[in-house]
Amino acid sequence: MKARLLALLLGAATLAAPVCSGAASISASFHQLTGNQWSADFVVTGDGAPPVIGDFTLYFPETSFAALSLGASPAGWDSLIVQPDAALHSPGFFDSLALGPGIANGASVGGFQVKFSFLGAGSPPPLRFDINDANFHPVYSGLTTTVAAVPEPETALLVLVGLGALAGRLMRQHRQQFHSGRTA
């Protein structure tokens, strides 16, 4: 009976405990390059937990990712890549350390890019990440949020050229129908 009462009290205390309103987040925008070659652009946002982000790690599961390479890292950040190893059942990772003050609450930093081979079907899934303290111990963990990829300028230009050609063809057909109706 005492154990049951203790469990109920602990459950009530857990429900009454304040919920952290902010948490660090990392958004990912995936872009298919060719075949199974992809790139991912990441934006890291500080939102109070922890107060400043000075180091983070993104994990790439060994069953879905291979051939990781650093695409870009913003100024003031030291980034490194470690390859996934299926034989050791070890994910690969991308780690980045702020060389300066880091990312404060409410601030965002983009420009982190990783290129990789995606071994799965469809699009890459959300990735697990850790926000690390000054001793490189995780203080917060989460999953990336996926942002819809914006088409490359070349793709948008091709779409516009195609729509222009289609509009021109429709206008020619309309003129031909108009002129053939006037001469009859």
Your description of this structure?
This protein has 184 residues and is an alpha+beta fold. It has 2 domains: 20-150, Immunoglobulin-like, CATH 2.60.40; 151-184. It is built from 2 helices and 12 strands, in the order αββββββββββββα. The protein has helices at residues 2-16, 153-183, and strands at residues 25-34, 37-45, 52-53, 55-60, 65-72, 77-82, 92-98, 103-104, 108-118, 128-132, 138-143, 145-146. The chain has a 5-stranded mixed β-sheet with strand order 5-9-2-1-12, with no helix packed on it. A 5-stranded antiparallel β-sheet has the order 6-7-4-10-11, with no helix packed on it. A two-stranded antiparallel sheet has the order 3-8. The longest helix has 31 residues, at 153-183. It is elongated. Residues 1-21 have low confidence and may be disordered.
Count of discrete structural domains: 2
Contiguous uncertain segments of 5+ residues:
1-21
The helicity comes to 25-40%
How much of the residues is beta strand, in percent? 35-45%
Biggest β-sheet strands, sense, barrel: 5 strands, mixed
- CATH C-level of the largest domain: Mainly Beta
Count of DSSP-assigned helices? 2
Tertiary shape:
elongated
Task: State the end-to-end distance.
Answer: 99 Å
For the biggest β-sheet, the strand order reads 5-9-2-1-12
Overall radius of gyration: 25 Å
What is the total tally of β strands? 12
Mean pLDDT: 81
Elements, N to C (H/E)? HEEEEEEEEEEEEH
Backbone structural class: alpha+beta
The fold-level CATH name of the largest domain is Immunoglobulin-like
Which second-level CATH architecture of the largest domain applies?
Sandwich
